[in-house]
Give the backbone structure.
Amino acid sequence: MNKKKLIVIGAGASGFFCAVNAARLCPELQVVILEKSSKLLSKVRISGGGRCNVTHDCDDIVTMSNCYPRGKNFVKKTFHQFFTHDTENWFTERGVELKTEEDGRRFPVSNSSETIIHCLLKEANTYGVEIMVNMSVEKIERIDGQFKLSTLRHGKDSTILQADYICIATGGFPKIDQYHWITALGHSVSPPIPSLFTFNLPKHPINALMGIAVESAEVRIPAIKAKDNGPLMITHWGLSGPAVLKLSAWSARTLADLNYSFKIVINWIPEYSENSLRDYFISYRMQMASSKLQQKMFGLPQRLWDFLIQQSGILGTIRWSDLPTVLQNKLIKSLTLYEAEVSGKTTFKEEFVTAGGVTLSEIEPSTMESRKIPGLYFSGEILDVDGITGGYNFQHAWTSGYIAATSIASNCLANK
């Protein structure tokens, strides 16, 4: 008796999660993962600085879904089937304990993404999931109730594979023409653009402070009336950190329309506005009259404080009592309304997150099955769903992969 066959296209988090769960839930199912590159779980490996930000500490579906610039209503439905606590339970049952950091991000206690990778590879081995690397899919056809996949191995050796079920979990593609074999099936795609990118400040003097981080700052883009708060990091090319990454996600399409050229305004101490800081300085100057300005304030890093007073035209050796009002006002603006011109973005290859993908109205959220082609499933970033930084994209990967797996397994068992 021939086994039913599932081919999962893509060896990332969502693809692996679909494959191992489908194989576990339906032992009669033959499961194969196809991966275009030679790497498995590459985003898992580098996520969170090599620690893997597995999910976010949130037990409210509405709150969680509000962290997805695209796909909010879709994940609000899918999370009812597999949510953050289900992710934790799944990994805990397999010996992987998670911990929660102050900002809500959840990591393996080991602080190593290899723990997650080892867990998924072990599951694949336990349930006999076959993994084929360097296999790219060129075309998919549905013939007589089965799928026919035209593939290339190492980019040259042509191979035809057949399957009863397919789950496309390739992640997002940076260019619309890379979706050609999906659109050929009759599915539509929202044009892909980058999300979660850093802001480039070419030749800006602040880049000399690379490596400096501020625990909390507010970044605004006045032209589109957008802003976000959070940790901010200065790099050798500009600005990064959660404040920038979240802002880039929420404004992804608008910033693409601006060709990534726009002005930002930074408040380095968001607990103060320009006016409230001016009021604060009245009493502070009286208390610290004989102190020199080079003594840092507001918990800002010393090098950043030195830079901001220098940018305000102030010598650090001057005393507060001798600071002219005009220079004080410049310092207040530097602290609460620091302006910079962004020109360009930076994305990180394997960490690239796509805004765009397969149109959600064509996918059934309760099963992740195509509403156009029976037996065809989608999971992960290939869909027009993306979250802000903090474990949200991985949660969507686990959720959608698990739902696809349970639906495929159920269909397989019903038709054996």
Summary: The chain has 13 helices and 22 strands. The CA atoms of residues 375 and 411 lie 9 Å apart.
